[in-house]
Amino acid sequence: MGCFCAAPEEFYCEVLLLDESKLTLTTQQQGIKKSTKGSVVLGYVFRHLNLVEIDYFGLRYCDRSHQTYWLDPAKTLAEHKELINTGPPYTLYFGVKFYAEDPCKLKEEITRYQFFLQVKQDVLQGRMPCPINIAAQLGAYAIQSELGDYDPYKHTAGYVSEYRFVPDQKEELEDAIERIHKTLMGQVPAEAELNYLGVAKSLEMYGVDLHPVYGENKSEYFLGLTPVGVVVYKNKKQVGKYFWPRITKVHFKEMQFELRVLGKDCNETSFFFEARNKTTCKHLWKCCVEHHTFFRMPENESNSLSRKFSKFGSIGYKHRYSGRTALQMSRELSVQLPRPDQNVERSRSKTYPKRNAQTQQTGKLYLNTSVYFWPGKQEKPSRNFNFHFLFAQRGALISTGGNAVPNPKRAPAWTVQEILDLIAVWGNKSVLSKLRYRRRNAKAFEKKIYRLHSAA
């Protein structure tokens, strides 16, 4: 007699990739069912992305309470109860699971590109904070990868503002990114991305997998799993760091998590933390086991130590990392890497409306093709338009009352953007024929332009 409670085998899932595109996996197209193992699903994604260095990556999903988990390659989809309870349809998120200690040493360009997308996302979403000078460097490398060499005719004022690099992005940062972008001539996308990763890997929060916990007196802490060990944060400050070789035991029971560390005096010390619930505590334990095995285990010891961690983890619970370790991947000889004639297809980043050329606080005039943008006002040029704004000294406020700019004869040379804006209004011949000197007599040129406009 059949079971009437049996769940249907059909499966429909969307995998959100790091370039924000989606990969759809269904029973009809790929033959994926709820009885399919996670390794099969991962295989489809890796083949779609043409990845060979696959052990750095994984698929995440969220339960109804927004707790995230990694898809276990050894389990069937039906065994991921938290995932099954969210659908159908189901959503998986592709991303970096283990951050390489030095991503610049990854063997293939396609692997480094996926790391670049992940780290860029981490910076944008605030998971990897950085000072403004570092943010400007990273933004410039990202722009170089996206747009190539700076071209004043293509990259007009405000072009950087069409892209997002950090939370709450300011115009000051965009100006700094533009200045640095101009110095990166000749860097191809692969080189710009390599330089991006070279800067990002030095950030304090690079590759840190944070888990919220409570310490004594219910004070809030975060445990960060990194390529080198476990970092403890309190009030956003690092208060402890324990390297993987010195961590001798990881244990959890109910909501209590224990980290046992070997000190310099060869004495062991246990640190106890409390998770929000039993599920999150078990998840923290599993992630800790996997990070320790992946990053710090010699090739011949990885399986034995994984079993050791399972034994000491908790009575009734066993977990073993089944993939290759970082050391095994670096010594992998079965596939010659990098593969010859690899062509990396890069996706365009999401763009946003361009920021106006100046800020409202300065009261300056905004120029954009044939329409002039004042703060709070928008109109086309008229015959009585005052041209003194074109020759204002840098940093001076512009008066709209028709007052002359002080000392216009020593006005600085026009910027490329000012020239392009004039061309958009008056045409190439009328403007370009007058651009003969680096420094111009403001009043004389104003009369010529005004005459041209009046005759039109």
TrEMBL record:
In terms of InterPro entries, this protein maps to: Band4.1-like4A_FERM_F1, Band_41_domain, FA, FERM/acyl-CoA-bd_prot_sf, FERM_2, FERM_central, FERM_CS, FERM_domain
Domain FERM: where? 11-299
| Classification via Gene3D superfamilies | 1.20.80.10, Phosphatidylinositol 3-kinase Catalytic Subunit, Chain A, domain 1, Pleckstrin-homology domain (PH domain)/Phosphotyrosine-binding domain (PTB)
GO BP terms in the entry: actomyosin structure organization
What Pfam families does the record point to? FA (PF08736), FERM_C (PF09380), FERM_M (PF00373), FERM_N (PF09379)
Chain residue ranges for the region called Disordered: 338-359
Keyword Phosphoprotein assigned to the entry: answer is no
Annotated compartments: Cytoplasm, Cytoskeleton
What keywords sit in the KW lines? Cytoplasm, Cytoskeleton
Q: Can you cite an annotated GO cellular component? A: membrane
Give the protein's recorded name.
Erythrocyte membrane protein band 4.1-like 4A
Organism (species): Gopherus agassizii
